[in-house]
Design a protein that fits this description.
With 290 residues, this protein is α+β, with helices and mostly antiparallel strands. It contains ten helices and eleven strands. It folds into two domains: 199 residues, Cyclophilin (Beta Barrel); 89 residues, no CATH class. The strands form two sheets. Strands 1, 2, 3, 4, 5, 7, 9, 10 and 11 form a nine-stranded antiparallel β-sheet that branches. Strands 6-8 form a two-stranded antiparallel ribbon. The protein is globular and about 50 Å long.
């Protein structure tokens, strides 16, 4: 049995241990993990949903404002003034800015990106993270994310593997592959009602990396069912678009809101105590495999 061990907190650290699954997705993820040390851990404080709504909202606002300032100090490309972290249209606008100037996964050719200093590139990448943080405010679904800045996203997940090993509702404490595309899934499009999204920015789950998220929650059957109903309605409303993209059925695994677990938490204490402990240690200090 192989294990993922996460150390959280700058002081008086705590450890979480996860048993790594034995399946093709976990094997593929482990192969990527073996190369992760060549890139820096990107933002070790990507924890969401552990604090009060007020604190989460303030943190998200500060994060966005800092990204916008760093970007605009270099070149004022974000012209709309900040409104609110709960203004979905403004968040969609920021995501459009990110897609335009950062470029998609294999299309980072915009002059802004090519000429920007590293600090501005990082801020532009973090703008995407900031937007997604805002989109889950108030969801009461604590999780944290571990990514490596600049690690190439060159591997893709075969559709048959997605269908066989994906799940709509991972267990509490599941470590899942993180979405590695630059764009939005059908799930994102449905949720965001995005008027800024361009045709080529629709990106279903395809590439993967060492990046992962740890879900310290479990969705109800009703929540998942309602989500599927809303997504199917959106798909039916825009069926011509999806047909043109080659997605002729809503049941295509690349369209469904599947998650891909690679490891599961070894629980050693009541969940409410564990959530409280993580709340006090919202910083990823070490990631190891054993």
């Amino acid at each position: 049995m192989k294990y993922l061990v996460l150390e959280l907190g700058r002081h008086d650290a705590i450890q979480l241990r996860f048993a790594i699954r034995e399946n093709p997705i976990a094997d593929a993820w482990l192969e990527r993990m073996s190369h992760r040390d060549a890139w820096p851990l990107d933002d070790p404080t990507r924890f969401d949903g552990f604090d009060s709504d007020e604190k989460e909202q303030q943190r998200a606002e500060n994060y966005i404002l800092q990204c916008v300032k760093t970007i605009n100090d270099h070149k004022p490309i974000i012209v709309r003034p900040f409104t609110s972290v709960r203004d979905r249209d403004y968040l969609n606008y920021l995501h459009h800015i990110f897609e335009t100037y950062h470029g998609l996964l294999d299309q980072q050719t915009h002059d802004f990106w090519l000429q920007a200093p590293e600090s501005v590139r990082v801020a532009l990448a973090q703008l995407n993270i900031a937007v997604h943080r805002c989109e889950i405010l108030g969801s009461a679904q604590p999780e944290f994310v571990c990514t490596w800045f600049g690690m190439p996203k060159t591997k893709t997940l075969p559709v048959e593997i997605m269908q066989e090993h994906g799940t709509l509702n991972p267990k509490f404490g599941s470590v899942c592959l993180n979405y590695a595309e630059i764009g939005k899934t059908l799930e994102d499009l449905t949720q965001d009602r995005d008027n800024y999204i361009s045709d080529n920015a629709f990106k279903p789950f395809d590439h993967y990396s060492a990046d992962f998220n740890v879900r310290m929650h479990e969705e109800t059957v009703g929540y998942v069912s309602d989500k599927l109903v809303r997504m199917q309605e959106y798909y039916n409303l825009h069926k011509d678009f999806f047909f043109d993209q080659g997605f002729t059925t809503f049941q295509d695994p690349r369209l469904l809101p599947l998650r891909f677990p690679v490891a599961e938490l070894i629980e050693t204490q009541p969940r409410n105590q564990l959530i409280e402990a993580i709340k006090q240690h919202q910083h990823i200090t070490q990631v190891t495999l054993q």
